[in-house]
């Protein structure tokens, strides 16, 4: 059963619930229930493990990454530590990134960074939550490494020709996070105020941080 | 896939359904260090065994639950027989509930 046709109404509502999933028992949904129950019957996992894992991921959203970025904008020494070792810098402000290696890359007036996973869907999920559908799509993964400027323009992000674009291809063990450029006019802003300008897409690199 | 010609990027996204979140949870739980019943390589190999058509015919988490299930069968954690019986039981249960 294909849901690829759902794209047309996905343009209208930013986060449409995907229909026919929890209320219709598709073959693969039945498979999920069956596998989960078999694993519980066999004592491999418990129902509580599943519930807690779902809750944990639900609690992860781009606010975590935004906190790191805002801190980096305010604190140059922190930013240097973050660029040197992203995982440690996340832990330093109480953000759990698990065993994966986090590499933080910074946008400047001469370089714009963007992330992709050509293999599958590796994503800094510990800091941004589950990836959006387009990040996992064939079109994004195929083209971002070959024609990033064109793909960015499709997101409405036009990078001047004198700014280099660096595309970072994620792997299962290494995830990237982009620090967007700090918007002008934000002098003397607090960390919380700055964090509100840091969107998920700006940390993927397909957008800039929100302007003031 | 990287570098192949492809169409425009559709800026699509959706709120994940509970069953999709559970597939994600199963992957995370099974690959944890204390279990090690699933590696990313196994997940990828089993997804790729579906062939390129799977990208048009199946959704992301449909491919994942397929690959997770295949891995568990290959490792002998579950058998095809028990899986078949369980799926039938789930279908019967849901039909009665409806």
Question: Can you put this structure into words, describing what you see?
Answer:
The complex is a heterodimer of chains A (212) and B (98). Chain A has 212 residues and is an alpha/beta fold. Chain A has 2 domains: 18-58, no CATH class; 62-204, Alpha-Beta Complex (Nitrile Hydratase, Chain A). In chain A, 41% of the residues lie in helices and 11% in strands. Chain A has 11 helices and 4 strands, in the order H-H-H-H-H-H-E-E-H-H-H-E-E-H-H. Chain A has helices at residues 7-10, 27-41, 47-58, 62-74, 76-84, 86-92, 125-128, 138-143, 148-154, 191-195, 200-204, and strands at 101-106, 111-116, 164-169, 174-179. A two-stranded parallel sheet of chain A has the order 1-4. Chain A has a two-stranded parallel sheet with strand order 2-3. Chain B has 98 residues and is mainly α. Chain B has a single domain, classed as Nitrile hydratase, beta subunit (Cyclin A, domain 1, Orthogonal Bundle). Helix content of chain B is 61%, strand content 0%. The longest helix of chain B has 18 residues, at 80-97. Chain B starts with 17 loop residues before the first helix and ends with a helix. The mean pLDDT of chain B is 93. The chains are: A alpha/beta (212), B mainly alpha (98). At the A-B interface, helix 2, helix 3 and helix 8 of A face helix 1, helix 2, helix 3, helix 4 and helix 5 of B.
Features:
heterodimer, A: about 210 residues, alpha/beta, Nitrile Hydratase, Chain A, 2 domains, two-stranded parallel sheet, 11 helices, globular, disordered N terminus, B: about 100 residues, mainly alpha, Cyclin A, domain 1, 5 helices, about 60% helix
